[in-house]
Write a structure and sequence with these properties.
Keywords: Hydrolase. Helices cover about 25% and strands about 25% of the residues. The radius of gyration is 24 Å and the shape is globular. It has about 500 residues and is an alpha/beta fold. It contains 11 helices and 20 strands. Strands 2, 4, 5, 7, 8, 9, 10, 11, 12, 13 and 14 form an 11-stranded mixed β-sheet that branches. Helix 9 packs across helix 10. It has a domain of about 80 residues: Immunoglobulin-like (Sandwich).
Length: about 500
């Protein structure tokens, strides 16, 4: 199989995240009163938390929001459109249930959103491996056929790099979709398998997935300009962007983008041919690009915040391997900003990059992801060291990552090293927080190991020489990792000194 670059978009992914429709499939407001685009028929709102309903309108307009069924209203809230044209009404928290109708009214506008469910909402965010669609994943046919029997719904946030008329037109065509054979193929495969696993624990609670991703994007795309430029690491990203567009008019930038798109389309069309050549990536940066720093925060994240969610599934980092040393601080800043937009304790489940034949930057990104999960409360690492393909950055097995993310949500833990003791001149005892599977390949360590014994949660290493330090899983592509008895891989680690 031909190697694909770490920054490629997901194969077959849609450019905008919208479906092939030309007519709105939801009630539309007007300049007088317009709820945010994420509100539509079939939506899922978060259970057991206050329900934020928001949008734009005429300053001073009184807005009324009511959630109910055919016989009664469950909750009512009112608010006034602020001077900046935005409004937010907050309904009291409700238990899981439905279907309901959400009524939004003000002035001459009366909107009704039908088939609304209250359940668990998760934001699936990041780049191409989260973007990878269910229709392209292993087991797609079976999953698609089965999807209609599961209470899963999804919303694809339009993929645009700035707020303009094109984005507004896309938003009018967006809608929530209940999963079935005809719709599920365009949702995130990882998120689908995540939801499928979560339903094994609570089969009667509807899962809502907000798909908010763009392949080939850096972490710098997912935060505001102010946040990005508040650190020297982020300022480097910003200055590289300014240098790329310096002296170019928007028409010149569009010409560059169109030329690149032609090259990229030709490369895609040549799939499977021996003279296909290298992927023409990355695309040129422009002031309207999805790939420009801060663009996706403005055109995607801010368009859906503060729509209630249980947490964020974050699968990203491949694009930032050239600047891996900057990643931890930037991911930390991004999480802080998203929590400011939603809630201070919004859980983040970070998918640690799987194995792949990349440069050392891949290893360093994994380390940065683990660092952030350690340092930030309510952030958790989902280790994927048992996943990946050596020569393809887009593994088609998305069931394992999806279920691993769900396992991490349900257990709030990962398989970690607790201690490392040097017993004598050449024996090391490693203790983990979970019982381990019996087979451990000595090649997972960066020292020469002659024998490995596993007992319960401990691993005894017989080393050729007395080690001064030890690294486990510190490779881009290599041996199968240490696994727990529940088939969860141990996180990579470094031991710089041993207990005695």
């Amino acid at each position: 199989m031909a190697r694909t670059l770490a920054t490629d978009p997901a194969p077959g992914s849609s450019e905008t995240g919208t479906t092939d429709r030309t007519q709105p499939s939801k009630p539309l407001g007007s300049a007088q009163l317009q709820p945010a685009a994420i509100f539509s028929h079939h939506m899922v709102v978060q259970r057991d938390e206050p329900i934020a309903v928001f949008g734009t309108g005429e300053p001073g307009l009184r807005v009324r929001v009511c959630l109910g069924d055919s016989t009664r209203g469950l909750a009512v809230a009112t608010c006034t459109v602020r001077a900046d044209g935005t409004w937010l009404a907050t309904l009291p928290a409700q238990p899981a249930g439905g279907p309901y109708v959400l009524h939004v009214s003000g002035g001459n506008v009366f909107l009704h959103y039908e088939d609304v469910m209250i359940g668990e909402v998760w934001i699936a965010a990041g780049q191409s491996n989260m973007e990878f669609e269910l229709r392209n994943a292993n087991g797609a046919n079976t999953a698609l056929e089965h999807s209609a029997s599961l209470p899963i719904r999804f919303y694809n946030v339009p993929k645009r790099g700035r707020v303009d008329s094109e984005l507004l037109a896309d938003e009018q065509l967006t809608s929530w979709f209940p999963c079935n054979e005809n719709t599920s193929g365009s949702m995130s495969a990882v998120a689908y398998f995540f939801a499928e696993r979560m339903l094994e624990s609570e089969p009667n609670v509807t899962i809502g997935i907000v798909d908010c991703y763009v392949g080939g994007t850096s972490v710098s795309c997912w935060m505001s300009r102010e946040t990005l430029r508040s650190t020297k690491e982020g300022e480097h990203y910003w200055q590289r962007y300014l240098s790329a567009i310096e002296g170019l008019s928007e028409s010149e930038q569009r010409a560059c983008m169109n030329a690149w798109q032609n090259d990229f389309d030709a490369w895609n069309a040549a799939a499977g041919t021996p003279d296909r050549g290298e992927c023409p990536w990355p695309p040129p940066l422009t002031n309207f690009s999805q790939f420009r720093p801060t663009g996706l925060f403005e055109a995607m994240v801010e368009r859906i915040a503060p729509f209630g969610a249980r947490g964020v599934l974050w699968y990203q980092g491949e694009e930032d391997t050239p600047y891996a040393n900057d990643y931890a601080i930037l991911l930390h800043c991004m999480i802080d900003q998203w929590r400011a937009a939603w809630s201070a304790n919004l859980p983040f489940i970070i998918a640690q990059l799987p194995q792949f034949m990349e440069t050392l930057g891949w290893v360093e990104i994994r380390a940065a992801q683990a660092q952030v999960a350690r340092e930030i409360d309510n952030a958790f690492l989902a280790c994927l060291m048992d996943c990946g393909e050596e020569d393809d950055v887009h593994p088609t097995d998305k069931r394992t990552p999806g279920r691993r993310l769900a396992h991490t949500v349900l257990t709030r833990s990962s398989v970690k090293l607790l201690s490392a003791r040097l017993l004598d001149s050449n024996q090391v005892l490693l203790a983990f927080n979970e019982e381990l599977a019996p087979d451990v390949d000595s090649a997972v360590f960066d020292i020469e190991v002659s024998k490995v014994l596993v007992h319960g949660n401990e691993v005894l290493l017989s080393c050729a020489n007395e080690p001064e330090s030890l690294r486990y899983g510190w490779y881009c592509w290599g041996a199968k990792p240490i696994m727990s008895r529940f088939s969860v891989p141990a996180e990579p680690f470094i031991v710089s000194s041993f207990e005695r």
